[in-house]
Design goal:
201 residues, alpha+beta, Cyclophilin, eight-stranded antiparallel β-sheet, 4 helices, 10 strands, isomerase activity, EC 5.2.1.8, isomerase, Cyclophilin-type_PPIase_dom
Length: 201
């Protein structure tokens, strides 16, 4: 499945006194990248399979050294970035069950983490982060023809959106590709995740 296009207007705001934190109880992961640090909150309640898969890659150390190898920039601060194991068989864990947004209630709004896939149930170690509201293209649309189950959303960027924007703005190499795929969408000098780690809850 290929998605043609991919946000928080700023970092996720601190909870307003007297109002609940929308990400309370979600495990936090710090992604220390060559472009700066981001913190993502992972929804293990609504998307338990997908979220725990991401945490498995973090906890095992396999996320360290991963690259933001694909960038689809549609407009300023609108598009998506993709990172992960790049189908390296030595780093991949088994595929997981697909959790469509129609089941989880999550949506591909700005700063959402999700998992790209081919057929449902083939997602393994590749991840995307959206900039801008991507619900029309990334969410499930079961009423349409085809599988139309979208990507599985499971988390949110809660700190470091400026770093996410800088990754989206990384210059692309018009000829670079991954075994024929993603031509014109791959950076010449990709941003690297130096260290991914869980933060204390």
């Amino acid at each position: 499945m290929l998605v043609a296009s991919a946000a928080l207007a700023q970092d996720a705001p601190s909870p307003i006194k007297g109002l609940p934190d929308p990400y309370a109880g979600w495990p936090r992961v710090e992604l220390d990248t060559s472009a700066g640090k981001m913190v993502v909150a992972v929804d293990t309640k609504d998307a338990p399979i997908t979220a725990k898969n991401f945490l498995h890659y973090v906890d095992s150390g396999r996320m360290n050294g991963a690259k933001f190898y694909r960038i689809v920039k549609v407009d300023n601060e609108f598009g998506f970035v993709q990172f992960g194991m790049q189908t390296n068989p030595k780093k991949l864990f088994p595929p997981i069950k697909h959790e469509p947004t129609t089941e989880t209630g999550l949506h591909h709004t700005d700063g959402t983490l999700s998992m790209p896939r081919l057929k449902p149930g083939t997602a393994q170690g590749e991840f995307t982060i959206t900039l801008g509201d991507q619900r029309p293209s990334f969410d499930a649309h079961p009423e349409a023809s085809g599988d139309n189950l979208g990507y599985a959303a499971f988390g949110k960027v809660v700190e470091g959106r400026d770093v996410l924007v800088s990754i989206l703005d990384t210059p692309l190499d018009p000829e670079k590709n991954d075994r024929g795929a993603f031509k014109g969408e791959m950076p010449a000098d990709p941003v690297i995740i130096v260290k991914a780690k869980r933060l204390a809850e």
